[in-house]
Amino acid sequence: MNALAEFISNIDHETRKNDTIVLQAMLTKVSGYQPYLDGTIIGFGQYHYQYESGHQGNAPVIGFSPRKQHLVVYIMPGFNEFEPLLAKLGKCKVGKSCLYINKLSNINLEVLESLAKLSIKYMQNHYVCQSNIVKSD
C-alpha cells in the first residue's frame, strides 16, 4: 500500500474518508494530475513560487487536506475572481485561499468542480506547473 492509500485508510471518520475518496477522484479528473501526499495535504501538480522577500518554494497547483473538523480545499489564487461561484457553492467557510467544507453533502459538487477547474486554469496560466510529482512513497 502506498503512503497516500495508507493515509486515506487511516482516516477514522467514515464520512470524511468517503468525502476524501470522492474529492480525490474529482480533482484527479479535473486537474489531469495524479495525486500525491505531502504531509497531510493531498496535492495535484506542483508549481514554484517566489515572494518579493526572496522566500520561495513549491506547492500543489490544487490540493486538499482531510482534517478532523472539515475538509480544507486549497484554491491557490484565492477567491476574488470566483465570488459568483462561491455564492452558489453551499455551506462552507472561506479563508484567504482555503475553502473549509464540513462534508461534501453540504455543497454543490458541480460548483466545486467548476471552481477547481478555474483555479487550476489560473495557476497554469500564471505559473510553470509540473505533474508526476513523487512524494511520501
Structure description:
This protein is α+β, with helices and mostly antiparallel strands. The chain has a single domain, classed as Aspartate Aminotransferase, domain 1 (Alpha-Beta Complex). It contains 4 helices and 9 strands. The longest helix has 18 residues, at 14-31. The mean pLDDT is 93.
Indicate the mean pLDDT: 93
Q: Any idea how many domains?
A: 1
Question: Main beta sheet, described?
Answer: 6 strands, antiparallel
Q: What structural class do the secondary elements suggest? A: alpha+beta
> Reading side by side through the largest sheet, how are the strands ordered?
1-2-5-6-8-7
Report the uncertain regions. none
The CATH level-2 architecture is identified as Alpha-Beta Complex
Helix content: 25-40%
- How many helices? The count is 4
Q: Output the CATH class name.
A: Alpha Beta
> What do we call the CATH topology?
Aspartate Aminotransferase, domain 1
N- to C-terminal separation?
9 Å
Secondary-structure element series:
HHEEEEEEHEEHE
Name the assembly state: single chain
Radius of gyration: 14 Å
In total, the number of strands is 9
Protein name: YdhG-like domain-containing protein
Pfam families: DUF1801 (PF08818)
Domain YdhG-like: 41-117
InterPro entries: YdhG-like
